[in-house]
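Following the same procedure, sequence and fold were stored together, as reproduced here:

>
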Amino acid sequence: MNTSLSKDELKLYLGKQLSNYFPDNTRFEGNDVDSALTLALDRLENCFKEITFPAYSDGEQTFFSHLHADQYATFLYFFMNSLWKFSENKPICDKVLYLNRMLHGFFVSYKGRMPDHFFLGHPVGTIIGNAVYSDYLVIFQNVTVNTDTDAEGNPAPVLGKGLFLGTGAKIIGNKTVGDRVSVGVDAVVYNREIPDDSVVLKAENGEVLVKKRKKEKCMAQNYFRSVI
């Protein structure tokens, strides 16, 4: 992967951000930090190679810039989630979570299980709860997905593959959303099961409509190289 900073430079850069925003005695160092950084970059490359936009990949080479806000927000998630898996280093994970909120207005927990392949489209004001996510997820600004459980106490809602969440889209409750579903601008899915290959739209009168997709490809397919 072609990166704007080397791994060592990126570690120094992130460490300086954390110490400037959170000037306490927690040191940004250790084997767990180094291992998490390595894994985060591997996960980032695996994610970006599937994204169709030329700033991410040209089909052969992937690209990561620490000055590309959406890319950096994705990196911060992969880093803190990897660090949590390695050592549950809560002080640093908390800081990275808050850094993502301050820099990008984006909330996702380091305990949350985002899929291997997802795309963030300037996700300012977006809150991503600890739901069950599937591959090829697209998230834009002011999106909300709540944290809930099903009747058996399992994490919910379960969200299918190829989910597109447009500006202002909301998924609230614990009902399953199927594969290749697109939730349009300001549409709210409230405790409602959505079948595969559906489009959820907000009508002019405020009514939320669920329609069968007519186009051959779902919206998320525009953002990823693999067939969804």
User: Anything to note?
Assistant: The two ends are 24 Å apart (CA to CA). The first strand starts at residue 2 and ends at 3.
